[in-house]
Amino acid sequence: MSNNFLSIKLKEGYRFLFHQQWPDMVGGVLLGLLSILIVMWSRPWGIVGGMRNWADWIFYGVGIIPEAPQHPLFFSSSIMDIGLLLGAFAAALMAKEFAVRPSPKLEIVKGFGGGILMGVGSSLAMGCNVGAFYTTLINLSANGFTMMAGLIVGAYIGLRYLLWELENFPAPPTAMVKPKQNVNAFDLKAVQPYAGGAVLLGMLIAAYIYNRYDYTEIGGLLLFGMFFGIVLQRCRFCFVRAFRDPFMTGDAAVVKAVVVSILIGTAGVAIMKWNGFRPASLYVVPTFGWGSLLGGMIFGIGMVIAGGCGSGTLWRAAEGHLKLWVALISFAFTNSLMNVFLVSTGLKAKLGLAVFLPDVFGWQGALGVIALVLFLWYFVLSWNEETNKFTVGI
Amino acid sequence: MDDIKPNETLDARGLSCPMPLLKTKKAIEKLASGQILEILGTDPGTANDLPKWAKRSGHDFLGEKTDEGFNRYFLRKK
Question: What is the set of active-site residues of B?
Fold first, then answer.
């Protein structure tokens, strides 16, 4: 009887977590909380460093990069990305939403091109939507504002391109999926939740092994990546939407979720920095200026064309979209090469200033300025939600 | 759901966000008021995006049906 009760409750819990998409606002709140906890544990959340690390290894192998990069299994940013990929993969499996999803040729080309633009943009801005906008604002760094301005412009240009493409490349036949003939074939969907559970269990075991060998912090970051991946996939949380959708459909729901998320994260990290638990300079990125303005714009164009930013590309790739795998690869390789270029020309030191907002406005002022800018952003876009003044028709 | 007779079918299989929605937006403009558009899709996001967009734009989301490896969505133009 109690056994029966347990199994009913477990099934209820499974349905609650994996049968429907979680609301945007749940994603915003959870990402904000995770962003605080991960700083308490080790370091702020980032995406691009790990992707570059993987590409650096390939370029090291062919001799373009002289010194061996850090080991991907012991490099914090890489481990967070691996955790995110596997976490999103497990969540997609649990929800029976994983499938190898081929795309038409034009889409693959767009994934490739969008990835290149994101690679260039993220090297100029020293981060993606997460590392140069979301996480830097949470860490009270001024470059988050210039990145935001660049992203808004870039997303608009990217959307203009998509609309132009729709007019000029009439839909090619996209009949990619042929109906299955064999009805009695072994149903892969049915075993997906078990495979997802196995992936999650494997990650817990991996964290345990890290801990056994005194790499507890790295093991913890793997689990943080896993939680970020699960939340992103279950909410289909997409930073691209915050910048693109106001222009595309007028919808500002994700803008609201991102604003709430940043405010939660900012409150937590400000408390840690004010108390001296973490250095004030943590994640104050020296791209306040043209680096993040231009980088943000190029990144914004790329993310709309590819259909995923840094985090969005990772969780969608984990769900099986081949277009996003192509984007992930061209993003990582381009970022790595651009970084070599910026370092060797000395440009990397000239991308902009490192401005810690409390140094300029004081602590209260800095929090006020962040809240004010985010509130204005949401206010204007929720006004647009009613009036569609900025929404681009087809 | 089985007796819905679509006037037009849009094949958005293999496309990922935001292409299915953009193509739907374009395809529905060619229909007359009251006509039904069927959309075939493989992106899991479409199941949420289409009803949400239909609500915003005033079209009637009639529902979805699971087929072999893809979904069918039905919209009635306002």
Answer: 17
Burial class (CB in 10 A: 0-12, 13-18, 19+), A264: buried
Tell me which of A107, A249, A251, A315 to substitute to probe the interface with B (most B C-beta atoms closer than 10 Å).
A249
Q: Which residues pair with B75 in a beta bridge?
A: B37, B61
Q: For residue A171, is pLDDT > 70?
A: no
For residue A47, give every residue at least 6 positions away whose Cβ sits within 8 Å of its Cβ, in sequence order, or none: A77, A80, A81, A84, A127, A128, A130, A131, A310, A311, A314
Number of other CB atoms surrounding residue B77 within 10 Å: 21
Q: Distance (Å, rounded) from C-alpha A13 to C-alpha A19? A: 10
The phi, psi pair for B34, rounded to 5°, reads: 90, -15
Q: List the single residue in A with minimal CA-CA distance to B25.
A: A394
Residue of A nearest to B15 (CA): A103
Return d(Cα A237, Cα A258) in angstroms, integer.
9
Question: How close does chain B come to A241, measured CA to CA in Å?
Answer: 9
Query: Best mutation site among B8, B10, B13 for testing chain A: the one with the most A CBs within 10 Å?
Result: B13
From B59, B78, B72, B77, select the one nearest B20 (Cα to Cα).
B72
B25 interaction partners in chain A (CB closer than 8 Å): 394
ipTM field:
0.93
pTM of the model: 0.95
